[in-house]
Amino acid sequence: MRFVLMILLFVIFGYSLGLVLVNSSEVAVNLLFSQAPEMNLGLLLILCIGLGVLIGMLLALLLFKVLQNKWEIGRLNKENRRLKEELTQATVEIERHSLANQADKTVFVDSELQSPTPNQPRTDVSDSHNTIR
Prior knowledge:
Layout (H helix, E strand, L loop, with lengths): L1 H21 L3 E5 L4 E6 H73 L9 E2 L6 E2 L1
Antiparallel strand pairs: 1-2, 3-4
């Protein structure tokens, strides 16, 4: 990778040098609100290309950051919806368990109320004969 980068930089430098040498005429630069001194056309082209690449890279980084934030927001919204569903399911499960516990207590209390009274005869199952005491 380092070797490829070195070759790419060497090619860019050679192209820039050739651009300066081929376009050696002097041009006046008008910056709308001021006048820059006359400079080599090749040098002006290299400055404009470099400035354009720099501004383009900064804008691309800014745009990438915005897109990255949008992706992150979307992912977090999806996770938030999933967690809300889990919370809703857990709440339903807790309510179902509490209702089941209340029903068990009601059955237990009802069975205690239906236990035999002292006046009623009880059956003893331990004997082989079912005798009433």
